[in-house]
Amino acid sequence: MSDLSPLAQIRIACGTSTGVATLTTISRIIVRTRKSQLWVDDVLAIFSMCTLIVQLVASLINPSKAPGAPQDHDNGAVRYYLISNMFYAVIWSARLSILFSIIRITRGFRPNRHLAIAAALFLLAWVVLTAQLYWECETETAWKHAEIPQCKLDRVVAICQLITDIISDGILLAVPVRLVMIIQDNKLRYRLILIFGTCVITTIASFVHAAFLFEVKEVPIMIAAVIESAISLVVCNIPILATAIVKMQQHHDDTILAPHSNTVPRFWGEHEGSPINGGNIKHCPLPLSSLQNRIPAVLSI
């Protein structure tokens, strides 16, 4: 990938990661729709997927200034703001989806007041970081005239992102651990452990992105951002998909181990599948007494 242009690298990273994240989200929605279990966490996952797709479309925009366009209204600045705003939208809506998944699991077990406060803090962090982006980028507009416009963010932005990432991911890691110690239901404990394990992945991705922000490497920053946003969406879908796969496997095992019916098999009739021709045995709908009355008549033919 190092032989490709920076623009091509960003587009490939964004397209690949978005494709994986979108596929997992669609699979999640199919699972929930079939069971009629759509809830707030699923709506947030759908919103996160839509914003991720917008981010992909923005990465495909030609950053060069359109012919005849004003000097301060070029495609590059619009493209950068779209990608940056959608980054925050994907990240925080995915985190809110995970948080509401925890709220959904714990409904009826304990009050969710603290989790509701955490959701409000997540929304506040989303708004503050988005506002900070415009505060940093609109005070110095020289970046808009570069070949590939990208705002050079101050280290304060990196520090704020790192702090909010640590706090939010810390909440998403600590809450499942605490609930696992309280809840006795093994299925709910399993789902909480899944949420804990997947949140670790998001934390690692956010640290990588923050490291590039501190080093002020423009192209790696953009690539790390689009990959982190996609990972966040995948992570919020994994617990639901993993639980669905486990349930399907358990249902399959239960079907195989289910006791056979005691009804008498049918050895004749128009249906295909008698044991003579190797097909499936069909069960006789007639009572045993009626079958016994028919046997002499069959033998006399």
UniProtKB/TrEMBL annotation:
Keywords per UniProt:
Membrane, Transmembrane, Transmembrane helix
Top-rank lineage group of the source organism: Eukaryota
UniProt cross-references to InterPro entries, sorted A to Z: Rhodopsin_dom_fungi, SAT4-like
Pfam families per the record?
Fung_rhodopsin
Question: Which membrane topology term applies here?
Answer: Multi-pass membrane protein
Compartments in which it is found: Membrane
Query: Where's it mainly located?
Result: membrane
The residue ranges crossing the membrane are 6-31, 43-61, 81-103, 115-135, 155-180, 192-214, 220-242
Q: Which family is it part of? A: Belongs to the SAT4 family.
Read off the PANTHER family from this record.
Answer: MEMBRANE PROTEIN PTH11-LIKE, PUTATIVE (AFU_ORTHOLOGUE AFUA_1G14080)-RELATED, PTH11-LIKE INTEGRAL MEMBRANE PROTEIN (AFU_ORTHOLOGUE AFUA_5G11245)
By what name is this protein known? Answer: Rhodopsin domain-containing protein
Task: Write down the species.
Answer: Macrolepiota fuliginosa MF-IS2
Instruction: Give the taxonomic lineage as stored in the record.
Output: Eukaryota, Fungi, Dikarya, Basidiomycota, Agaricomycotina
